[in-house]
Amino acid sequence: EAASEALADGILTVGTNAEFPPFEYVGDDGEPDGFDIALIKAIGEKLGVEVQVENMEFDSLVASIGSKVDVSIAGMTVTEERQQSVDFSDSYYEAVQYVILPEGSEIATAADLEGKAIGVQLGTTGDFIASDDIADAQVSQYNKGMDAVNDLINGKVDCVIIDKNPALVFASKFEGQLTAVDGAEFGFEPEEYAIAIPKGDAALVAQINAALAEIKTDGTFDELVETYIEN
Ligand code: ARG
Fold first, then answer.
1. Cα dihedral sign for 58, 189, 185, 135?
2. CA 80 to CA 100: how far, in whole Å?
3. Structural domains present in the chain
4. CA atoms of 15 and 185, how far apart (whole Å)
């Protein structure tokens, strides 16, 4: 199969939203870092291209794929709606939404979420659950998940719905004040993260999947999980 034209210039430009630890965050040097960034750099190495990461708002990523950037890696969940506009690589991580609550909150079941003030990151699956699936929710959408968490601390929202690993990181910043609860207890479904690729670029999907498979078999993937996620 022919190589993707997207790689012809020797550069893979990658959109992310570095507000989602441990998958992507701004490192001490001001550059995006995290599991996803290390993973896409490892993929670039296998493909023999230089990786350039562009940090942007999560909500603008899907529309930027194939125009402003070649691909996106951003802890992005594969959804049917996104598949209307982009293709996805094989998935590389299983996630689920978590509910961050103040210690002592009485919210414990899906029914308890009804009518509540819920903070989410704009355009995420947590946003879709809160906005579409929870009756009478008053949803506050933030560009940064951490801003939603700060408003939870300030009492402006009753809970925050966000992916498992960022929920654990954010809640741990407020130990004794916040707790992160597995969304499975609220009936939330498992989600799969994958790299988003311009729709129809089958060559790029195949190249990225081949690199990902190599990274999984040669041990690099497990090393990255240990370095960034299970530390
Ligand atoms: N997994 C969720 C989604 O796809 C949230 C991803 C947020 N990622 C980020 N880098 N801010 O909607």
1. positive
2. 26
3. 5-93+192-229 (3.40.190.10), 97-186 (3.40.190.10)
4. 32
Task: Report how far ligand 1's centroid is from the alpha carbon of 122 (Å).
Answer: 9
The closest alpha carbon to 36, from 18, 24, 44, belongs to: 24
Is the CB of 20 within 6 Å of ligand 1? yes
pLDDT given at position 231: 76
Could you give the ipTM of this predicted complex? 0.98
Looking at the predicted structure, is the pLDDT value of residue 174 above 80? yes
The per-residue pLDDT for 3 is 82
Q: How far is the CA of 74 from the centre of ligand 1 (A)?
A: 6
Q: How do residues 196-222 score in pLDDT, each as one tens digit?
A: 999 999 999 999 999 999 999 999 999
Residue 148: CB within 6 Å of ligand 1?
no
